[in-house]
Structures are given as C-alpha cells and as structure tokens.
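Progress against Task 2.4 (sequence-to-structure conversion) is shown through the following example record, which the project officer requested during the mid-term review.
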Amino acid sequence: MSSRERILGRVRRALADLPDTEPPIERTYLREHGHRGVAETVDLLAENLADYRAHVHRCTATELPGLIAGLLAAHGSRRVLVPPALPPEWLPDGGPERVPDQAADTAAELDSVDSVVTGCALAVAETGTIVLDGSPDQGRRRITLVPDHHICVVRTPDQVVSSVPQALERLDPTRPLTWISGPSATSDIELDRVEGVHGPRTLDVVLVTA
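Structure tokens generated for the chain above:
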C-alpha cells in the first residue's frame, strides 16, 4: 500500500460517520453597509476607485467619444485593442489604429498594443471594484491583462451596485469573471509599490450617464 492510499484511507474512515447532506448555510450578513441613494452610490464608487489609484472620469454618452479620444491621445496610444462588440461610436474616426481581438494573438502581440477599451459587467461601489465577465463588449480576459493601459466604461447607474453580495446576485458564476480594483500593483517587504506587474499600469474608468 502506498503512502497516498494510506492517507486517503484515513480520510475516508474519518468521514464515514458524517451525514451525507450538509446543513444549509445561513446568509444573514448585511447586503450593503448603510443606505445610499443612486447618486451617493455612484459617488462612493468614484471615491473608492480613486483610492485604488484608478483615474476616474465622468461624462455623458454624447461626450464619451471625445473623452476616450483625449485619454488615448494623452497616453500616446497609436494602436488600441477593440473587443468584438464594443459600441463603434465610443471610438471616434481618425483616432489610433483599431486592433480587433483575435484568439490567435500571442502575449507578445497583445503587448505591442498601447491601450484597450472595454465595457464592464458591473461595478461595486463599496469596494471600488470593476467586474468583467468576458461579454462581447469586454472581450477575452487576457486583452485586459497584457496591454499597459485599460480604459473601462461603466454605464451609470445601471451597472453600479452597492456591495459584493448585490454583485454576486447579478453575475453569472459560469462566466470568466475578472475583478479589478485599481491598476495592477504589488509591494515588496519594504512596501515599495510597483505598478503594472500582472496587469495594466494605468486604469482609466469612465462613468458615463445617458
């Protein structure tokens, strides 16, 4: 008998007299902390995004193309990665070269792109978190992890929730969920912060209202 078989045998014997069904889990935790109106919830999201060093911008749908064009120009972007169903009106004509998302793209090819523009599934105000679920206006997970600059558009107030429990109720757990709280960053033992380690160095979040 191998060591593996001995260990698994001990586990089976230890679990032999346990009931087949687990007791239900009580979910009595708070669904949100405090009571906020719509405008207050969006303001809290903006505040927490900024705390994570994301650059937060607000505009109307009419102003959105001009704002995105300005952000790309400020970053010096010449090539921008575009998910398959990104609304075409978000990117004005005459801007950087639009690079379509293709499954065959290698990490090196994605790294050669200056920016990526996506929508989102929703945003969580209490944690300042953007959630992507791989929908056509967001594309594959890797296109938001390799390029150095990510512009993410959040439609307010429809895509903004107060808390993580509220977010989980709206998200599909079978989809590839990516939870983003600010630009990619890490710190060493001396707390020296380095950004852009395992994701974009710069995160621009645009809160757009109809």
